[in-house]
Specification:
With 401 residues, this protein is α/β, with parallel strands linked by helices. It has eleven helices and 15 strands. Helix 4 links the parallel strand 3 and strand 4. Bound molecules: pyridoxal-5'-phosphate (PLP).
Length: 401
């Protein structure tokens, strides 16, 4: 009998992303794989109180579709926070809320990118954005970095090289503060250099400042957006790491021509009004003190991970000691393939991590690197997890501490 199932073969859009099965996410007890916040200090009661208050005051508005840019009082809150903390002076009308900051990044990509466009980014960088760039068939070029950020000479020669090929880069994507996965924060000088190059060659910057509030020591560095007076910077931020990723709330600001397309790209109306209400009411009264509290907790976890690496990996590895953010970037000797043993290590010792290629623009470099997130587990579990990791690496013959 003929197969009566309908076939979508030939119907999938030419530029659709590559099909993939739903991922099977296996988490380790010692879960250093994903940049989660601390679960014990999630402000559950505060969010509930905030939601209840908002429902009592505005619940009838659930009958309406909210503003396309998202709940106006939350955009007003974001505008005030950006002005106070990041020197970014924009109005609530210049902000679009998104499902996390991943969606705004997607919106910016869809606004700007055609297949084959060149985008410049750090040599190891947030995998979610790499996924977006690949989804738009972008020519992604990684720029070498050191502990102070992207190397200006490398950035300039990449821009010149692309221009020489008739492919002027569409934008530079950077995570200047507590870079994911490398952990460094770009100095003011490096930010100025990047901006100078952006102006000289007419290449805009997308500044992803997802971790900026998670500073455990040291002085904050001005945002790139605040140093620009030409309107060449787009900016994204998130409530994921300072409240909870499950709320799916983030935001973007950018020059009007970008916002006006991005809003249309977003489609589907505003962000979820429940989440926006809860976060708005909670953040208005409590976010500052919550950030102080979680930074104290995360500082202790960062210290626990760095100390445990020292005790268990000794001189057999190198690792970052970030002043903020949620991860340590571990480097083993050149021949180590942390990608090949990742699943085996997870099964053997219940420790999860992500290996370098996930963050590499070419998808293959950095096999001897791993990103270790310290946000989720307790300091005790972090110590135990790192000891287990060292043990597993030793059994694989890549650690002789
Ligand atoms: C650098 C960076 N940008 C953006 C995101 C997106 O997060 P969200 O969509 O939850 O805001 C992440 C998530 O880990 C990230 O690390």
């Amino acid at each position: 009998m003929a197969d009566s199932r309908f076939s979508f073969e030939g119907l999938i859009a030419k530029n659709a992303p590559e099909a993939r099965d739903a991922p099977v996410v296996k988490r380790g007890k010692y879960d250093f794989a994903v940049a989660y916040p601390d679960p014990a200090s999630l402000p559950i009661d505060g969010l509930l109180d905030g939601l209840r208050e908002a429902m009592e005051q505005e619940g009838a508005d659930l009958a309406l579709y909210a503003h396309q840019s998202g709940y106006a009082p939350l955009r007003e809150f974001v505008a005030q926070k950006l002005a106070r903390d990041s020197g970014i002076h924009v109005s609530a009308d210049d902000i679009i809320l998104g499902d996390g900051s991943g969606q705004p990044i997607h919106m910016i990509c869809e606004t700007l990118l055609d297949p084959g466009d060149v985008v410049l980014t750090e040599d190891f960088v947030y995998s979610g954005t790499l996924g977006q760039l690949r989804r738009f068939h972008t020519d992604i070029r990684g720029i070498a970095c050191d502990q102070d950020g992207m190397l200006p000479d490398a950035l300039e020669s990449a821009i010149k090289n692309a221009i020489g090929q008739g492919k002027k880069p569409k934008f530079i994507y950077t995570i200047p503060t507590f870079q994911n996965p490398q952990g460094w924060t770009a100095t003011k000088g490096r930010r100025e250099a990047m901006l100078r190059l952006s102006h000289t060659y007419g290449v805009p910057i997308l500044e992803d400042d997802c971790y900026v509030d998670l500073r455990y020591e040291g002085e904050s560095v001005p945002s790139i957006y605040s140093m620009d007076d030409t309107g060449s910077v787009m900016y994204t931020g998130s409530f994921s790491k300072i409240i909870a990723p499950g709320m799916r709330l983030g935001y973007m600001t950018a020059p009007k021509p970008i916002l006006d397309v991005a809003r249309v790209v977003k489609s589907g109306g505003s962000v979820n009004q429940f989440a926006a209400w809860a976060v708005h009411r909670y953040a208005t009264g409590h976010l500052d003190e919550h950030i102080v509290e979680i930074n104290n907790i995360q500082r202790g976890k960062r210290d626990a991970m760095v100390a445990a690496l020292g005790e268990n990996f000794g001189s057999a590895a190198e690792w970052s000691e970030p002043a903020g953010g949620l991860f340590v970037w571990l480097k083993m000797q050149e021949e180590a393939d942390l990608q090949a043993i990742r699943d085996k290590v997870l099964d053997a010792v219940d420790v999860g991590y992500q290996s370098g290629p996930l963050f590499a623009p070419d998808g293959v470099s950095g096999k001897n690197y791993a990103r270790l997130c310290f946000g989720y587990n307790t300091p005790e579990d972090i110590r135990e997890g790192i000891a287990r990791l060292a043990d597993a690496f030793a059994r694989e013959g890549i650690l002789n501490a």
